[in-house]
Amino acid sequence: MGEGGGEEGYGKIIVGVCVMEKKVKCGSEAFSAPMRQILDRIKAFGEFEILYFGDKVILEDPIESWPLCDCLIAFYSSGFPLDKAEAYADLRKPFLVNELEPQHLLHDRRKVYERLKMFGISVPRYALVNREAPYQELDYFSEDEDYVEVHGNRFWKPFVEKPVDGDDHSIMIYYPSSAGGGMKELFRKVGNRSSEFHPEVRRVRREGSYIYEEFMPTGGTDVKVYTVGPEYAHAEARKSPVVDGVVMRNPDGKEIRYPVLLTPNEKQMAREVCIAFRQAVCGFDLLRSEGSSYVCDVNGWSFVKNSYKYYDDAACVLRKMFLEAKAPHLSSVIPPTLPWKVNEPTLPSERLTRQGSGVIGSFGQSEELRCVIVVIRHGDRTPKQKVKLKVTEEKLLNLMLKYNGGRPRTETKLKSAVELQDLLDATRMLVPRPGVGSDNEAEDLEHAEKLRQVKAVLEEGGHFSGIYRKVQLKPLKWVKVQKSNGEGEEERPVEALMVLKYGGVLTHAGRKQAEELGRYFRNNMYPGEGTGLLRLHSTYRHDLKIYSSDEGRVQMSAAAFAKGLLDLEGQLTPILVSLVSKDSSMLDGLENASIEMVEAKARLNEIITSGVRTTHSNVTSECPWMADGAGLPSNASELLPKLVTLTKKVTEQVRILAKDEDENLAETSPYDVILPYDQAKALGKTNIDIDRIAAGLPCGSEGFLLMFARWKKLARDLYNERKERFDITQIPDVYDSCKYDLLHNAHLNLEDLDELFKVAQLLADGVIPNEYGINPKQKLKIGSKIARRLLGKILIDLRNTREEALHVADLKSNQDNCPNSAKAAKAANQEFRQHFSIKIDDMRRSHSTSEMSIDQDDNDNKETKYRLDPKYANVMTPERHVRTRLYFTSESHIHSLMNVIRYCNLDESLQGEAGLVSRNALQHLYKTKELDYMSHIVIRMFENTEVALEDPRRFRIELTFSHGADSSPLERNDDSDASLKQEHTLPIMGPERLQDVASYLTLEKMEKMIRPFAMPAEDFPPPTTPAGFSGYFLRSALVLERLVNLWPFHKNAHTNGK
């Protein structure tokens, strides 16, 4: 001891720092900031001398002339002679903080995973593809559109592809076609970016050897763990590069991270990693997914940046190591006062206490926001379409057999790119060229026209995406034929029904609407300044989950909303996969109320055609909504013929445009692929395609041929001339097409389109609400059947929030009643430091939530509560959290939910109870006929902390509602509206109150009124993991784990969050 320290350092322990200068220097400084902070503290104890080797010594001098030291800090980086350092250590035998030989393992991800598994440390499911030469073909590896298979192990997209070389940081994530496809490349931070999305890349790399592993849904958050010896671990969370690739930095240019508490299991994992690789100072990446934790990378030597508390602890831990190794006779007890005088800066504290709704509650107390639940309809979309045709062509029948396993009576569904490409190839060969090879028989002409329509739909956009197009082939007729081997007979289909469903795609306007509404919520729905949500979310106190139905337009609306809400950047596919959980059982389907809806439509047809309505005894001029068919125009029967006439006029104009387009296509080969529009790129845009508009083409991906097919079908189905019968169920579709073309295709100058819109709107405003019930009681019955599961989930959300808030309040009350507890904790902490068993995450357990209070449709073991570490966070109430649940769905569920909320008191079990909606709001809702795109219902719950825990007034519910897109610019045909003319986008109306200002709706009252119509909590089935390529959409709450969400920070934020 002291041999290398000279006279001045005699008797001191020499700590040698043998690392490359680029890893430790910070400008002209000898060491980087974390290294300097820690070594300065170690030196300040007076027991150590720090000796820095330098690049010249390390690279040029023989190890025999290297300085002598007692303890050695040495770790590999690019250019570092690890073998040479090992030889020095063997020669001089210093105490090694991080052993050198195991550092070779860190350069090979295969060996890292092998070592982790050897020590029983959980890693993601993975498989190895080893190539001896680039592009070597391997018999155990195969790739399909939505998966790769390695040694029989199938990895469905999204999956992760990592080079086996640990120094190669080019990691790829491949997304399924059902989410739009594409690939995201992760890389070392370059400026403010750490990833890049490539929508056109669908195939994996073959240049080298790779690890393929299962994508772990983490809610957009990565956790980095830093050990200093096996007894100490510090963890920080950061926004994952998987989501939008933007590195969020503070005003000093440092990446923003937040300390978090590790679970007992994670602490054990940290200890095991430290021991397995024999690296005392070690960083590794932790994935928290579905309530479990996995190690996905081990980095070796790593220090935390910008944490004075960590610098203190690390210096103390390293000092203890050095003394025990080289001077065990010296006491390692920490002095009462640490020898350095470094005061950790104190950032301004913040409190999540604001006035509820921006006002003082009716009892005068301030309130705290506890829960935000929003049910939202998707954004603007293209009209939904369907083509039906009977097919007898051999090619199409063979295709059906190919994909149904050769079963002649089994229906086939084609959705993947490979399947749809096969269908397109077959259809191209069957479609006759215009004017060639067709006779004049009407059926043949119609069949050829439908085949052309199928071909046009399949070619639309230039690529396939299962979200937007799907084909069903249903066998209709069979015959017995001789088997090919001559042994007996077999059935073979000779006719099938082809059903092609397409359209309903989120438009550029729909994405813009969703994103802007997300921004509105970010700035207005949460208490505080304009960035209230970001400040809340960034401090790890925001429990966010986003749910979506199965429909592509709904999923993409949810992703676009999340982008605006959380201030993200980039394309929607990574956001969708990382943050949006699909739950079709809760947000899709009308099957439960199909019988009642048929009855309602039949009665509606009777009212319109006869003009006779039933008047109930409780119908008054003050309650006009109680009548059967309320909202229907009195002259509906007169408007129908006018609707038909105007529809035919518009259809004829589109037919002429389509004829011109068809003639142009006839001049090209029928096998040419027409690529007028790239739908994948359109998903990343919020602006219209100016070039298409300037060329006189329809907006979006629709050509004139498909536009004509849309209008022709409407004209044909709206009125059956042979039977002289109107089909009122077509009225919403006519209105839908009118509104779409008036908004997106006004440049085509279709005559009478605006007049048709006015007539269709009058009828649709009466028809659409009454399809969900002809009177309030039927609306309540239908609404409760459609939204039963969603209503049950909302009640669970509210109840869980209440239980968590009461648990926190109870803990706080116990602490306040035990004034000695703080002194006891301080004494225990002092003893803890004196014995130097520093385990930073054991110093204080988070008691912020009841583990009993979780979503009932979540698995108890998979709802781990991850919390901010209060010792490091400058937050006065880290145990207070806000729960946000966003449910994205279609028009049917919005109508159903609203009908239950406004008519629940009409149920026999609730007779005499006051309703949830005020009389003024009922009047307003009656006048609000359409629940347009992005319409939403908001339920916010506030806690009044100044009343007793058992008082029903402790929790107040606020109900607000928006009818979504404002169509008044279309009604006025207002060319002066810039957003309408230039962006094809209608503005979204802000939410309005459903209660009187002076009213006070308690949670108890809300539960009482909704419970009869909601699915009981005990009926929610346990979570399941779907099989197949949609497996990344783990059911419901399994995808977004509570409180592990990405960090959105306002681009121009200051340290105080304002």
UniProtKB/TrEMBL annotation:
Region of interest: Disordered: 844-864
SUPFAM superfamilies attached to this UniProt entry: Glutathione synthetase ATP-binding domain-like, Phosphoglycerate mutase-like
Catalysed reaction equations from the record: 1D-myo-inositol hexakisphosphate + ATP = 1-diphospho-1D-myo-inositol 2,3,4,5,6-pentakisphosphate + ADP; 5-diphospho-1D-myo-inositol 1,2,3,4,6-pentakisphosphate + ATP + H(+) = 1,5-bis(diphospho)-1D-myo-inositol 2,3,4,6-tetrakisphosphate + ADP
Its EC number(s): 2.7.4.24
Pfam families assigned to the protein according to its UniProt record, in alphabetical order: His_Phos_2, PPIP5K2_N
Record's GO cellular component terms: cytosol
InterPro entries associated with the record: Acid_Pase_AS, His_Pase_clade-2, His_Pase_VIP1, His_PPase_superfam, VIP1_N
GO biological process: inositol metabolic process; inositol phosphate biosynthetic process
Record domain VIP1 N-terminal: where: 13-108
Keyword line: Acetylation, ATP-binding, Cytoplasm, Kinase, Nucleotide-binding, Phosphoprotein, Transferase
GO MF annotation: an example: ATP binding
Function: Bifunctional inositol kinase that acts in concert with the IP6K kinases to synthesize the diphosphate group-containing inositol pyrophosphates diphosphoinositol pentakisphosphate, PP-InsP5, and bis-diphosphoinositol tetrakisphosphate, (PP)2-InsP4. PP-InsP5 and (PP)2-InsP4, also respectively called InsP7 and InsP8, may regulate a variety of cellular processes, including apoptosis, vesicle trafficking, cytoskeletal dynamics, and exocytosis. Phosphorylates inositol hexakisphosphate (InsP6).
Family per similarity comment: Belongs to the histidine acid phosphatase family. VIP1 subfamily.
Name the UniProt record assigns to this protein: Inositol hexakisphosphate and diphosphoinositol-pentakisphosphate kinase
Protein's organism: Hibiscus trionum
